[in-house]
Amino acid sequence: MDDFISQSVEQTEEFAEDFSKNLDGDEIIALYGELGAGKTAFARGLAKGLGVEDSVSSPTFAIVNEYQGDYPIYHFDMYRIESWNDLDSIGFFDYIGNGVMLIEWSENIEGALPDDVIKVHINKTPIENERIIRIEGF
Ligand SMILES: Nc1ncnc2c1ncn2[C@@H]1O[C@H](COP(=O)(O)OP(=O)(O)OP(=O)(O)O)[C@@H](O)[C@H]1O
Ligand SMILES: [Mg+2]
Predict the structure, then answer these.
(1) What values do phi and psi take at 17, rounded to 5?
(2) Ligand 1 — pocket residues by CB below 6 A?
């Protein structure tokens, strides 16, 4: 898939909303990008595209937020996850295959991701509000 250049948070959300139409309901989507890159914005648009009306924010303290749209959606923030033990204790592996998983800070759980993961890289550019979004594995 070609890189998408987003010029605003709204464009990032709309891009994710459109992308959601390709999903079958059991995908694992790993989100990569620095603080404030737009991972949650992407998650918000994707959830909206799947019919979620709840507000979507970073599940930093909860580790995982669940939404019900066309499919169950599990939105993780792995910022504080450091080990397989941590992953096990949040029941991470039980979620696989049971809904769409959206994973912020996937860098921290790289070794635990299955081969068929969809990777979404969101990178800032020198231009304010511009982001380059690259989707791999889809
Ligand atoms: N093109 C853009 N796409 C997405 N967000 C943008 C864009 N331009 C500016 N922003 C701003 O960048 C911020 C992105 O915040 P968001 O919470 O989505 O980032 P995040 O990657 O989830 O950060 P964190 O690691 O803290 O969870 C918002 O304040 C948003 O308004
Ligand atoms: Mg976030």
Answers:
(1) -60, -45
(2) 6, 8-9, 11-12, 33, 35-41, 58, 104, 129, 131
Amino acid letter for position 2: D
Task: Tell me the CATH architecture of domain 4-136.
Answer: 3-Layer(aba) Sandwich (3.40)
Q: Ramachandran region of residue 122, left (φ > 0), alpha (ψ -120 to 50) or beta?
A: beta
d(CA 133, ligand 1 centre) in Å: 12
pTM metric for this prediction:
0.96
Phi, psi of 134 (to 5 degrees): -120, 125
Is 40 in a helix, a strand, or coil? helix
pLDDT tens across 2-37, in order? 999 999 999 999 999 999 999 999 999 999 999 999
- Beta-carbon-side half-sphere exposure of residue 117 (alpha carbons within 13 Å): 20
Q: Residue of the nearest CA to atom 6 in ligand 1? A: 9
